[in-house]
Amino acid sequence: MSLQIEFEQGRRALIVRLKGELDHHTADIVKARMEEAIAKEDIRHLILSLKDLSFMDSSGLGVILGRYKQITSKGGKMVVCDVSPAVHRLFELSGLFKIVSIQDNERSAISSLEVAL
Question: Which InterPro entries does the UniProt entry name for this protein (predicted)?
């Protein structure tokens, strides 16, 4: 299965919606497209919606951690939302929940950042 990436932007915040599988086959593409969008649009905050993400491996964790570092280096915040049980477990095992904020849905994620899209 492939991966689809959807971007929505407003007020220096970017929502990235991933659909499909984020693994070693798709990680480099996702990384490059997210880096480009963050740099091009002067994005300060990032919301990563994983509602339709069916699978993620350690390569995906690397992409998320890298974007977290990119955003926090600009003084921004990153929130992950709509995490499936399988991906949630991967986050728990990796300890990613200790540094990345998790919200139930996009609305909660937006509210937690206190920015209007």
Answer: Anti-sigma_ant (IPR003658), Anti-sigma_F_ant (IPR014237), STAS_dom (IPR002645), STAS_dom_sf (IPR036513)
β partners of residue 52: 19
Taking the CA atoms of residue 38, residue 49, residue 15 and residue 91 in that order, the dihedral angle to the nearest 10 degrees is -40
- Residue pair 50/80 in contact (Cβ under 8 Å)? The answer is yes
Minimal CA–CA distance to 94: which of 66, 58, 47, 63?
A: 58
DSSP string, 29-42: HHHHHHHHHHHHTT
- Please give the structure tokens belonging to residue 29: 């593409």
Query: How much is the pTM?
Result: 0.91
Asked if pLDDT for residue 116 goes beyond 60, the answer is no
Q: Give the pair of three-digit tokens for residue 111.
A: 């509210």
**Least-confidence region, from 9-13, 34-38, 53-57, 103-107:** 9-13
User: Would you say how long the chain is, in residues?
Assistant: 117
Confidence of residue 15 (pLDDT cuts 50, 70, 90): very high
Phi, psi of 60 (to 5 degrees): -65, -40
